[in-house]
Amino acid sequence: MSNQSPVTAILVIDMQNDTVHPDGAYASFGAAEHATSQQVIPHIASILTAARDAKIQVFHSRIVVHPVPGLGGGNAPIFQMLAPDTFKIGSWGAEIVDELVPQPGDVVLDRTRMSLFNGTEIDVMLRNLGVQRLVVVGAWTNMAVEHTVRDAADHGYEVTLVEDATSSLSTEWQAAAVGFALTNIATITDTASVTATFSG
Fold first, then answer.
1. What are the pLDDT digits (tens) for 132-173?
2. The pTM is what?
3. Which structural domain range is residue 129 located in?
4. Which residue in 143, 169, 165, 144 sits closest to 24, CA to CA?
5. d(CA 80, CA 83)
6. Residue 167: inside a domain
7. How many folded domains does the chain comprise?
């Protein structure tokens, strides 16, 4: 895994205050506790440092809710759950956590759907850069991460999921996503392996 052959990019999914912070909207659902147990923030920070040192492009994606009621839709329970009081554009909850604040050269893409490939220009950007392989980290593994990984594979990218740099609402949801839903879709690895390869 390098930035030369094949060309690699990092996708950081929904590392926002409402998603993983102890004061976030979904802390009571177990989100912050599981993120802490996974050490997801320091693990992602390590990956991003190694990626930037290796000149690998970093993309951050945030799920957001527009202030105008109804724009996000309510066709699925997850969209009903998000609206109207979480991830609002411009709110603290929608912001990326302080420890992972985007750096100059990073790209930030907002979306209102689960997958990063739905409603953003990520595919065009990746192809313009010649990217073939994606390293995916973030939250939640059983929701936006899984949707993004599946779509990435369907779009023809090789996908690596960093298990200890992702988190869900619980260990059970994490195990279901990693051990069953994504096991044949992505290569599953860990932070130490990824950072070592970037540094190698």
1. 999 999 999 999 999 999 999 999 999 999 999 999 999 999
2. 0.93
3. 8-199
4. 169
5. 6
6. yes
7. 1
pLDDT at 1: 44
- Below-50 pLDDT ranges, the chain: 1-4
Residue 117 lies inside a defined structural domain of this protein: yes
Query: Is the torsion defined by CA of 117, 121, 124, 125 positive or negative?
Result: negative
Assign residue 13 a region: left if phi > 0, alpha if psi is -120 to 50, beta otherwise? beta
Structure tokens at 3: 């930035």
Residue 90's domain is classified under what CATH number?
Answer: 3.40.50.850
Instruction: Specify if 190 maps to a domain.
Output: yes
